């Protein structure tokens, strides 16, 4: 017997009666397992993977331990500012730990699960910024936007680091009593991105009216110029934000 925990296009998450979480579907890949292993190696709390395999009927399947707790999303509105700050400081520690994993040759990728104007799986940081800038310039039909965005992204000196890329309350499990983060879930969109990416994406949420975005960025290193450039990217190429 199983309980349905979540279902989206290409991914179903079930809880078996013996306490195993089963994630399966066409959107589920070995990449997610690899990213979880890397995150765990630097002390980020993630579910323990029991096994992962291809299934003729279900696509790729990941079996994981069930992590006790509740999603931050389910209790977010009931928490006061001090409690949210406690969670925000833990988030900063998680991002700092992830950023100790630097991409070999400072290459960006794999770029998966996003509606970004990027087609290659891995590329140099300069190529990544070039593709983003060119994509927006083409969409808005203003060639001068290209040089403007390139200037905002700077001289391509950012570190390219391990990035979750979906640090929203639905993907964070906390202990409802201690408010300690127990696990970060759903690593299918993760990869190596410029160090400003997590901050800029969360700040974009604040602009869209999310109180989570505003709370989270209080505790992260700030990249205001890169945010302005990336905000335009997300306006033209919307991300899944809820």
TrEMBL record:
Which Pfam families does the UniProt record give? APH
Q: Where is the Aminoglycoside phosphotransferase domain?
A: 30-215
Q: Which InterPro entries match?
A: AGP_Transferase (IPR051678), Aminoglycoside_PTrfase (IPR002575), Kinase-like_dom_sf (IPR011009)
One MF term in the entry's GO annotations: kinase activity
Q: Does the keyword Flavoprotein apply?
A: no
> Which Gene3D superfamilies would you find in this protein's record?
3.30.200.150, 3.90.1200.10
Supply the alphabetized keyword list: Kinase, Transferase
Q: Which CDD domains match?
A: APH_ChoK_like (cd05120)
Report what the protein is called: Kinase-like domain-containing protein
Q: Which organism is it from?
A: Dimargaris cristalligena
Q: What is the lineage of its organism?
A: Eukaryota, Fungi, Fungi incertae sedis, Zoopagomycota, Kickxellomycotina
């Amino acid at each position: 017997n199983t309980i349905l925990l979540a279902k989206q296009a290409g991914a179903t998450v079930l809880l078996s009666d013996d306490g195993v979480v089963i994630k399966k579907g066409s959107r589920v890949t070995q990449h997610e397992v690899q990213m979880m292993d890397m995150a765990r190696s630097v002390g980020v709390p993630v579910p323990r993977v029991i096994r992962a395999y291809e299934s003729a009927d279900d696509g790729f399947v990941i079996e994981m331990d069930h992590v006790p707790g509740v999603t931050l999303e389910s209790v977010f509105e009931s928490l006061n500012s001090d409690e949210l700050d406690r969670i925000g400081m833990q988030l900063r520690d998680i991002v700092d730990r992830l950023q100790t994993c630097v991409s070999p040759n400072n290459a960006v990728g794999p770029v998966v699960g996003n509606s970004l104007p990027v087609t290659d799986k891995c590329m140099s940081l300069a190529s990544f910024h070039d593709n983003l800038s060119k994509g927006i310039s083409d969409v808005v039909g203003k060639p001068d936007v290209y040089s403007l965005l390139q200037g905002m992204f700077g001289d391509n000196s950012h570190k390219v680091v391990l990035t979750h890329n979906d640090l929203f309350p639905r993907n964070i499990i906390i202990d409802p009593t201690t408010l300690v983060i127990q696990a970060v879930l759903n690593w299918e969109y993760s990869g190596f991105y410029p160090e400003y990416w997590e901050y800029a994406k969360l700040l974009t949420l604040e602009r869209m009216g999310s109180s989570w975005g505003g709370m989270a960025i209080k505790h992260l290193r700030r990249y205001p110029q890169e945010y302005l450039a990336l905000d335009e990217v997300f306006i033209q190429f919307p991300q899944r934000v809820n």
